[in-house]
Amino acid sequence: MLSRVAENIYWLARYVERAENTARLVRVNSNLLLDTPRGIEPGWKPLVEITGLHDQFFSTEREPNERNIVRFLIGDANNPGSILSSLASARENCRTVREVLPRQSWERLNELYLFAKENIQSGLTKGGRDDFLDGIIQGSQGIVGLLGAVMYRDQAWHFARLGRNLERADMTTRIIDVRSTDLFPNDLLESRSLDTLQWISVLRSLNGYQAYRRQVAIRVSRADVLSFLFHDASFPRSFMHCLDAVDESVWVLDDSGPATRGIREFKRKLLKINVGEMNQASLHEFIDELQIDIGRLHSHLVKTFFPPPLKLDETA
Amino acid sequence: MPIELKEYDPGRFFDEMMVRKNRARPLAKELIGLFRRMNDGELAKRQAAADLAIKEMGVTFTVYNEDEGMIDRNWPFDIVPRIIDKKEWDGVEAGLKQRVRALNMFIDDLYHQQKIIKDGVFPAEVLAESKNFRPQCVGVKPPQGIWAHICGSDLVRDAEGTLLVLEDNLRVPSGVSYMLENRLVTKRVFPELFESYAPLPIGDYPTQLYEMLAGLSPRKVKRPKVAVLTPGIYNSAYFEHAYLAMEMGAELVEGSDLFVEKDDCVYMRTVSGPERVDVIYRRIDDEFIDPEVFRKDSALGVPGLIRAWKAGNVGLANAPGAGVADDKVVYAFVPDIIRYYLDEEPGIPNVPTYRCMYKEEREYVLAHLDELVVKPANESGGYGMMIGPRATKAERKQFEKLIRRNPRNYIAQPTLDISTVPTVVGHTLEPRHVDLRPFILSGRDISVTTGGLTRVALRKGSLVVNSSQGGGSKDTWVVDTEN
After folding, report:
1. Least CB-CB distance to A99: which of B246, B272, B303?
2. What is the ipTM metric for this complex?
3. Which residues on chain A are in Cβ contact (under 8 Å) with B57?
4. Helix, strand, coil percentages for chain A (3-state, nearest 5)
């Protein structure tokens, strides 16, 4: 498989996953706020930090209010991380790799991009937001499902799986981070039922509530939720599940390279830690650390599989 | 409201589906009948279904627009198929095979002994002026002596209903992917007509293309590595490059994915290291294909590719230099070329063409400038042309001067009344002009697509079928009426 093609597939999968998870992120925040008692005004501003897009957002002068932040995250063509930009980038990447993906994947992705583009105005209204986000999530799942159901398990498949799972691991930590940052004043959090409601929201936004209820406990507690979302390898959006998938695919592609060694080390580190015991501040720090580790893993992949093409004068 | 064809008026043109108002040709009776039973809402609904299918399938072509930069337009498609009788098509197919066989012999001759020039059939001065003759290719022996493996010849039907060849595209002809996609869309839109008409299938083109390309492999392996070389996503035909690579299970590569090693073999950069490439279907013009040999500033090509090809280590289709026969003056000689190499009469006539290099023909042209179209030999896209009936007196004077100064650079043809086919316009059908591009594959055998790509000028009265200028396309059905 061509290095250029492998890299495009990897990014294609990342961008689709990013669009889906950005939708989940906006949705969990909206839901958290709906459960909040009147009179409290926790901001949308933390989302800009959580997505790592602080500089991007503040590069133009605008109020960090709900309207502006939601627009920035879902429909801003100048924000490379917005849902619309992610889908546009996914589509650009797909365009160059159509011949190695199942034919319908381009059609589905094209449809999803057109859906986002054509419905963005309604997505920016409060009443239309949920339907829009739902459409994005379903569209993305349709693509992932299609690849899972019909794609030959060749190298292309593994690069798509790598991209999807690295991005999902990263975004899962960001979605957890929404709850871990100080969205709310501390005294409010002492209200037990509010705390529970909020962790339910986080679980729901990751489609994990049902599984948690069945597999872990009926009672929703912070420590159990965190350990479920980080360590339960049987839950497909958990951090550990994503790392396992990355591990398997890297191993198939190159069983002895630095990427394989890097991922094994990463998993060992995660297993040693008990996330449930961490307080909010150290959880937040730990999540930052994980995101840096994911970045490092990405660099290993680039070095191993997608070395930059030689310049003309170097080949001469 | 049912579709009325009382107003349908092809005028002086030959209409392929209708004899006159309200009267369908026998071949088109059922098709036209279906339209008559439809109401206008149904017609619009079917066209909308086709447009949606095209949008969803992502069938696009790329145009460059000053305001928006590069944009992808949906492929404009008209749902009314064009029907051709198999009896007629068999003759066309034989004629195209004959034509391409002769053209390949001609190209091979030009790069070797040039017998046709020595025998006085083809003038040396035409070759001397040829823009697409590549001296770097003299003496090269491509497999089976074939240079133009993929040819797209444009056919038009005149006012009498006779099919004529308008031009041959022997460099990197495009459009075949749209031909294939058009069929898929039509199947979705008119399933009922497929049962009664049973148009002959066209879907085996990618397989035939792959087999022809694989036949050029220097290594005798079971599954030679075939790559489609594209200039990249900004090329107007990128959709087709990706499509064909996908359909053939070939690699779609850009110049920077390939390199030539010291062993004069071509390799591609893969995630598991370099991998040898056996055959390249290149969709990049000669000039850009190898900066070592042609344009030094080309970033699209592969340095050393020509070296590898000459050494016989990689197959290239079409062979560099094949474009020498893709020239308007050469075109005028094709009937002579067929007689010279094959000792046969041409199966499909050319559009009558006057070669200004010959005194008698030149005098005719100069005396009839007001009715002829004058074309320079080596321009394309309509540049430097004069359309006699529309030209001013001053323009005609100017062309008279140009022709006298450099007669071998000009040819002239009568203005053509090309045929029409019913086309959806709003809620009804109107005649629109069409041409036809069949594709001819030459390897150990020669094969011709069943039908080809029908392009249609969607603007009323227009003869311009190019998709960038308001042209669209139709599905083309070759139908066996005897069974």
Report:
1. B246
2. 0.71
3. 107
4. 75, 0, 25
User: Is A309 in contact with B291 (Cβ distance < 8 A)?
Assistant: no
The domain B352-414 having CATH identifier 3.90.78.10: the answer here is no
In angstroms, the CA B277 to CA B250 distance is 11
Contact assessment for residue A27 and residue A133, using Cβ atoms and an 8 Å cutoff: yes
Name chain A contacts of B269, Cβ cutoff 8 Å.
2-4, 309
CB contact residues (below 8 A), chain B span 219-258, against chain A: 232-233, 238, 242-243, 245-246, 250-254, 256-257
From chain A, the residues in CB contact with B243 under 8 A are 98-99
Burial class (CB in 10 A: 0-12, 13-18, 19+), B236: middle
Structure tokens that stand for A17 in this block? 């996953």
Contact status, residue A51 vs residue A25, Cβ threshold 8 Å = yes
- Stronger pLDDT, B459 or A38, i.e. the higher one: B459
Check residue B152 and report its DSSP letter. E
Would residue A204 be called left, alpha or beta, if left means φ above 0 and alpha means ψ between -120 and 50 degrees?
alpha
For residue B27, give the DSSP letter: G
* Mutation for B interface: A312, A313, A314, most B CBs within 10 A: A312
CA dihedral A141, A146, A151, A154 (to 10 degrees): -10
b/e code B394-421 from CB counts within 10 Å (16+ = b):
eebeebeebbeeebbbbbbbeebbbbbb
CB proximity A104 to B under 8 Å: no
Distance CA A226, CA A224 (A): 5
Question: Is B303 within 8 Å of A315 when comparing Cβ atoms?
Answer: yes
Cβ contacts (< 8 Å) between B254 and chain A: which residues? 4
Searching chain A, which residue's CA lies closest to the CA of residue B267?
A2
For B313-350, the pLDDT digits (tens) are 999 999 999 999 988 899 999 999 999 999 999 999 99
- Chain B interface includes A95 (CB < 8 A): yes
What residue spans define the domains of chain B?
Answer: 352-414
CA A137 to chain centre: 11
Query: Within B66-155, where are the H helices?
Result: 86-110, 115-118, 124-128
Chain A residues lying within 8 Å of B253, measured CB to CB: 2
**Residue showing tokens 């986002």:** A116
Cβ distance of A2 and B268 shorter than 8 Å? yes
Residues 65-94 of A with CB under 8 A from B: 92
A1, A92, A95 ranked by CB distance to B270: nearest: A1
Closest chain B residue to the Cα of A111, Cα to Cα = B56
What residues of chain A lie within 8 A of the CB of B238, using their CB? Answer: 95
Query: How is residue B482 written in tokens?
Result: 């005897």
Structure-block tokens of residue B115: 């017998």
Q: In tens digits, what is the pLDDT along chain A, a chain of 316 residues? A: 899 999 999 999 999 999 999 999 999 888 888 777 666 655 788 888 888 898 899 998 788 889 999 999 999 988 999 999 999 999 988 877 877 888 789 889 989 999 999 999 999 998 999 999 999 999 999 999 999 999 999 999 999 999 999 999 999 999 898 776 555 555 555 566 777 888 888 898 899 999 999 998 888 888 999 999 999 999 999 999 999 999 999 999 987 778 888 899 999 999 999 998 888 888 989 999 999 999 999 998 988 888 765 544 444 3
d(CA B431, CA B433): 7
A305 touches chain B (CB under 8 A): yes
Question: Distance (Å, rounded) from C-alpha B320 to C-alpha B293?
Answer: 11
Residue with tokens 């690579």: B245
